[in-house]
Amino acid sequence: MCGLNWNALKEALVESDLGDIVDVKFHPLEFTPQIIPTHPEKCPTLAKTETNCNYIADGANLCAQHSAQWFQFTDCMFQLTLQGDSENPLANETLFDPNLRKCAEVMSDYSVEDLRACTYGEEAEQIRAENMQTISEIFSQLGLTHPNLVWASVGGKLVSNPSETDSPVSDRAVWQKKLVDEVCAQYSGPKLLPSCSSLQV
User: Fold this and answer.
1) CB–CB of 5/18 below 8 Å?
2) Residue 200: what pLDDT?
3) What is the torsional sign of CA 130, 134, 140, 146?
4) Alpha-helical runs (H) found in the chain
C-alpha cells in the first residue's frame, strides 16, 4: 500500500464516524524472494536475513500489531513514505532505525526494544511468511491474480478503482466514496452514521 492509499483509507474510514464500526486489518503485499521494482533499496546490516528496506519496514508494521496502538505506529511509518523512496528515511539504512524508534514511541504497550527485536530478528520473518499466506488466501477469495494499486477488501468484497491503477499520485476521492458506500451497505447496527445518511437504499 502506498502512503497516499493509506491516508485515503484513514481519512475515509478510521478518522470518520465509521471508525467505531470498522476493524481495519493491514496486510502488506510482498513478492519475496522477488523485490518490488519501485522499492529496491537495500538495508543489508539491519535485519538477520532480509536486506530489502521495504520488506524490513513491512516486518516492522506487522510486528507492531502486537500492540493495541499498531495503527498509530503504521500511520507514522506511512507518513515517512509520502515523497517517494528518494526522500523516505525508511529506504535509507542509516536513517531507518532512528525513524523506526521515533514511530515506536506512540506505542505504550510494546517497547521500542521489543519492536526492534521482532523487526530485525526471526520473528519478523515468520510473521511476514504468515502474512504472505493470508494475502494468498485473500486473493483467492476475491478472485485476484494481482491487485490494482488502489484496492481493499471490505467484508470479503473487493473495493477497487481501476481508473487509478497506473497512477500512484492520482486523487483517491472516487475510491474513498466506494469504501464508504460498501461499509454502509454492509452495516446493520443500531448506530446512526452521518457518513451513511446520503446512501441511496
Assistant:
1) no
2) 43
3) negative
4) 3-9, 53-63, 70-79, 93-104, 112-120, 122-142, 173-186
Instruction: Return the exposure string of 17-36: e unless at least 16 CB atoms fall within 10 Å of the residue's CB, then b.
Output: ebeebbeeebbbebeeeebe
Q: Which range is least confidently modeled, 25-29, 71-75, 162-166?
A: 162-166
* CA 75, 77, 83, 85 torsion-angle sign: negative
Q: Specify the 3-state DSSP secondary structure of 94.
A: helix
165, pLDDT greater than 60: no
Peptide bond into 162 cis (omega under 30): no
Share of the chain above pLDDT 90, in %: 71
- Which residue is it, cell 493495541? 68
C-alpha cell at 65: 500489531
* Residue among 56, 65, 78, 73 nearest 25 (CA): 65
Q: Where are the alpha helices (DSSP H) in 64-172?
A: 70-79, 93-104, 112-120, 122-142
Question: Do residues 59 and 50 lie in contact, with contact meaning Cβ atoms separated by under 8 Å?
Answer: yes
How much is the pLDDT for 198?
Answer: 65
Reported in sequence order, the residue ranges of the chain that DSSP labels E, i.e. its strands, are 151-154, 157-160
Contact 180, 18 (CB under 8 A): yes
Q: What is the pLDDT of residues 97-130, one digit of tens each?
A: 999 999 999 999 999 999 999 999 999 999 999 9
